[in-house]
Design a protein that fits this description.
Strands 4-3-6-7-8 form a five-stranded antiparallel β-sheet, with no helix packed on it. A three-stranded antiparallel β-sheet has the order 1-2-5, with no helix packed on it. The protein folds into two domains: about 90 residues, Immunoglobulins (Immunoglobulin-like); about 130 residues. Helix 2 runs antiparallel to helix 3 and helix 4 packs antiparallel against helix 5. By secondary structure, the chain is an alpha+beta fold. It is elongated and about 80 Å long. The chain has five helices and eight strands. The longest helix has 29 residues.
């Protein structure tokens, strides 16, 4: 029974991860400004089969941090690339951050400084943003750590479960560390800077809880009469890590415009 429950939980985790990966944001966005008409021109690439059921549902424009345009749509003009024009008077030095949100999931963000060049995500065709590598490493590491945490509860019927518990915990820790380092190299990609800041701070707390769980696991065998207390602290630090992970994944997705 424990083995079936363990396998079921791991299947759910994989399905959740796959659902996140299946989000379909616009492939790209370009911004330009017409000084003659005073219009901001937003060109969006969003390949869909049916623009009436799968479309960019909202376009938002922030000028110098303040929302000046927020339009909702029930379809998009074409199945691939299309253009919207918005009256947004700009002065030299004004910064515009525009976001286009898909009705199924995901969004694209572009930045424009007057007079300046368009900053898009990704900045060049074929270029993968650093946050994608961060997310891949972090999610893979978290799945390994969750496996390690679930094995003592549901996997004791598996031969060699304790060795598998140690191996998955070590593998997850090795993957999480470079993922945390990448956070500090990811540029500002979102119209919600506070979400990115919270994501970074919570990520540091995650790192500390992970290090605490590893340290407690290492000293448990040498704790003598306090072994039970150390074991309990190790378990609770692991649980805290899992809870913080779930929260921080959602905040991270918000920071890059996926949700």
């Amino acid at each position: 029974m424990h083995i079936r429950t363990f396998c079921g939980l791991m299947t759910i985790l994989l399905l959740v991860t796959t659902g996140i990966a299946a989000a379909h944001p616009p492939a790209g966005m370009q911004l330009a400004y017409s000084e003659q008409t005073g219009e901001l021109v937003m060109t969006i690439t969003h390949d869909v089969a049916d623009p009436a059921t799968h479309f960019v549902r909202q376009a938002e424009i922030r000028k110098n941090g303040e929302t000046v345009i927020s339009e909702r749509y029930t379809s998009q003009p074409s199945t691939d690339t299309f253009t919207y024009r918005y009256p947004v008077p700009l002065n030299p030095g004004d910064e515009v951050v525009a976001t286009a949100e898909c009705n199924i999931g995901g969004s694209a963000t572009a930045r424009f400084i007057m007079p300046g060049q368009t900053g898009t995500i990704p900045t060049e065709p074929g270029m993968t943003p650093l946050w994608v590598y961060h997310a891949i490493l972090m999610v893979t590491g978290i799945l390994c750590i969750l496996t390690a945490g679930l094995l003592p509860v549901f996997g004791k019927g598996i031969a060699g479960w304790y060795r598998l518990h140690i191996i998955t915990a070590i593998a997850g820790s090795i993957l999480v560390i470079p993922a945390v380092i990448l956070v500090f190299r990811v540029p500002y990609l979102s119209a919600s800077p506070s979400a990115f800041a919270v994501h970074v701070v919570l990520g540091l707390l995650l790192l500390f809880s992970l290090l605490a769980a590893i340290l407690l696991a290492l000293i448990r065998s040498r704790a003598g009469p306090r072994k039970a207390v150390i074991r309990s602290a190790h378990i609770w630090s692991g649980r805290a890590f899992i809870v913080l992970v779930v929260i921080n994944i959602l905040i991270g997705l918000a920071a890059v415009g996926i949700i």
